[in-house]
User: What shape does this take?
Amino acid sequence: MTGARYAAAVDTSRCRADETRNHQALLGFVAPATTRDELAPGAVVLRGFALAAADDLIDAVERVWAAAPPRHMSVPGGGTMSAAMTNCGALGWVADASGYRYTACDPASGTPWPALPDAFLRLADDAARAAGFDGFLPDACLVNRYAPGARMGLHRDADEPDGRAPIVSVSLGLPATFLWGGATRRDPVVRVPLEHGDVLVFGGPSRRTYHGVAAVREGVHPRLGAVRVNLTLRRASAADAQTMRR
Ligand SMILES: O=C(O)CCC(=O)C(=O)O
Ligand SMILES: [Mn+2]
Assistant: This one.
C-alpha cells in the first residue's frame, strides 16, 4: 500500500471507530471519543474533551464571577488587558502597574479568591492524565472572559516557580484562534483553532512555550452569549509540585 493509501485507510477506520463510539456515547454507554492534535512534544489539544462537563463548568464559572467579578487588569507600562479576568483557587494571578504576581486574596475585595470548583479539579486531572501527566493538582485557575475584539499578546506562563506541572487550558463559548509559538518570541507561530469544549494541555518541554490568542470574532454562543471563556489551570505554589511526566 502506498503511504497516502495507508493514511486514508487508517483515517477511515479511525472515523468508523469514532462514529461507533460516539453513537454509544449518545446512548450513554461510554465517554465520547476525543480527537488529539499534537502541537509539539508535551503539548496536545484534546478536542471536545470538556463538552460533557461544559454545563457544570459554566455554572461554576458563574459562581466564581458572582464572588470575584472579572475586571480589566492594568499592566506595567500603562494600559489594561483586553480580556476581563478573575481567579479561583488558593492563589490567583494578578497584574497591575507594578508587575505580575500570584496573591492569596483578591485585591479588589481583600478576601480570599473563591475555592477551585470540583468540576474544574476533575477535568484538570482527567485532561492532564489523557495528555500524559499524572497527578496534576492545580492550586490556581485564571478565568479569562473575552468579548469580541479582545485578544492576548504572545507571552509565556512563567510566574510559577516550579515548571514540572503542566497547564490545562479549557475553552468555552465563542471559538478563538490560539497562537502557538516556540521557545523565543521570534519563533514562527502556528494558528490553532479552538472551540467550545476543547482542552489544550502543555507541559514538559512545552511548558514555557510562547503563546497568545488572536482577537475573538463576533458571534453568539447558545449558553454564554457573545463571550469566550478560558480557564487556565496551573500549579502556582513552589512546594509540592509533584506532577511528573509519564
Ligand atoms: O485564552 C487562552 O486560550 C489562553 C490564555 C492564556 O494564555 C493566559 O491567560 O495565560
Ligand atoms: Mn498563557
Summary: The two ends are 34 Å apart (CA to CA). The pocket of manganese (II) ion (ligand 2) is lined by residues 155, 157, 211 (CB under 6 Å).
